[in-house]
Amino acid sequence: MTPAAALNARPLCPRHSCFVTSLRVVPASFARLLLCFVLLPGPALAVRHRRVSKAPVRRAKPKIKKAARVEASAAREEKTAARWARSLSLHDAVAQLVVVPFSGQPLAPRSKAYKDLFNLVRRTRVGGVILVNVFEGHLIQHADPLQAAALINKLQGAARIPLLFSADLERGASMRLNDTTVFPHAMAFAAGGDAGSARAEGVITAREARAIGIQWIFYPVADVNSNPDNPIINIRSFGENAADVSRYVAAFIEGAHSDPRYRVLTTAKHFPGHGDAATDTHVNLVTIPATRQHLDEVELPPFRAAIQAGVDAVMSAHVALPAIEDAATPATLSPAILTGLLRHDLGFRGIIVTDALEMGGIAKGFTVGDAAVRALEAGVDVLLMPSDPLAAIDAVMTAVKSGRLTRQRINESVHRILLAKARVGMDRGKLVNQKSISKLVNLPEANAVAQGIADRSITLVRNDGALVPLRDPAKTLFLLLTENSKGDEGQAFAQELKKRVPNANVRILDPALSPADLDALVQQSQTAESVVAAAFVSVAAYAGNVALRGAYPELLRRIGKPIILAALGSPYLLRAFPDVAAYLTAYSTVPPSEIALVRALLGETSISGKLPVSIPGLAPYGAGISLPAVSKP
After folding, report:
1. Tell me: the pLDDT tens digits for 358-382?
2. Per the CB 3.0–4.6 Å rule, which of 74, 155, 244, 462 could disulfide with 583?
3. Right CATH number for 458-601 from 3.30.1060.10, 3.90.226.10, 3.10.450.50, 3.40.50.1700?
4. How far apart are CA 146 and CA 104, in angstroms?
């Protein structure tokens, strides 16, 4: 029998693929030899297999264990941080602790703003820069990704040690940059009920941030919004339930850390919790009347979850906590809160960064220099946006020279900062490839993820008379109660509605309605079959509260028929208009939420969102009427 005939013979054992043939056609001597090979155990059998197998055997390359890779990476980071640290004078070391703002807008090279910014980087040698928005009147101007990246590259080129670029990317990169993926506010995620959505946001936000040159994200918000009157956290929080907030906080961090190519530094804020505030720390120091038991049960669990998930930084709040510290001392300046509670009790070893030091909660009670020194004494590592960076640096240097602060204390913070820079690979390349931005930012699939999150967030709290979905959109009056009719609010809603109902009666309004306009709208409402009032109620610094402004409350009161009220923003709006026939909330003012609301009103998408907060006296936590989709887009 030929070798080919032997290879085509019937298998005796499927596990080992051993072959025998009929002894009638094989000489006895060859048959005995073949059986010897069949019965040989262990290595000999393996040898026989290699000789008869058609496919070559590939030896697996030894894999480097994950623990070994982590250890090697940590060693590289430590070595890099130590190398950078050796080159720092006292002044340069202190300057590494300071983060200054920039808008990302194009700057004329001869302008004062350009020279001041580059002097802070080149001569003062600050450690980081934060991207902020600029305002034109009451309208926010966002930066262009390509222009921002170009400026970031120039600033990195001027820095001896790579800069950490940071930003409050609470709704993805869109919070600071145009033409990026737009996510709704945090509360919308929790209304949808899937923590995986927060992880997806983390993945996408990290990729877009790194593509543009931002390595440090001041997010997620770990505050539990237990106070419905909170004017500054509100929809920025994942809700009022500490366990829910913990899940979404951890999920975002995991997503942002999931891809080593686009890893960012994440930040849990605002420690030890800003959710029970009734006033804005941008304006004044806020007192949180919480007991230690309340802290342990409500405020601290999300921060514990963040630390367990590997959060890189924790941002302090300008709040007073009399249960732990003197009522006149903000948490940002409190050793008992930052070193005692955060470092010792919670075991956090990462970066502690202040909230902006120019905010009223600090600036009204302390000078720039005193705040900087006291923050470092409390355990802070990074001084965010002091109103006078040079004064802050000088004050800290004076404190070191006088012995109030030790050089060792400065070195501890510098080490954490430099280690973070190495962790995000700043030693291996600090410039971004501007040509790759379009391939990584504002991708269709990312926008689809964001829209899906907004769609699932829509919550129908009340539906008396089954007004939702709309019976006849063409006979409905749509009133879009924007906060500024000259901005973008309402545009996405109107465009989406007109695609489906070309003759829709939709009005984009401004709070400064004249008496004549008010009368005309009331008159129009009388001839409409139904009235939808989509109200934009956003959270904004220095606003003082979250409410409808101007003539809007009077307009809603004068419409003499059942109203479908939809909150694009704070879900607590129902408290101001408790008698409306139907009430929906989208938890956000962004375009995807406007589009989601149109789809829900027309019955194109199912409604399944649940309240992640309670509306006192009106709706409990978890409330929400579910409706199936009834029409096709």
Report:
1. 999 999 999 999 999 999 999 999 9
2. 462
3. 3.40.50.1700
4. 10
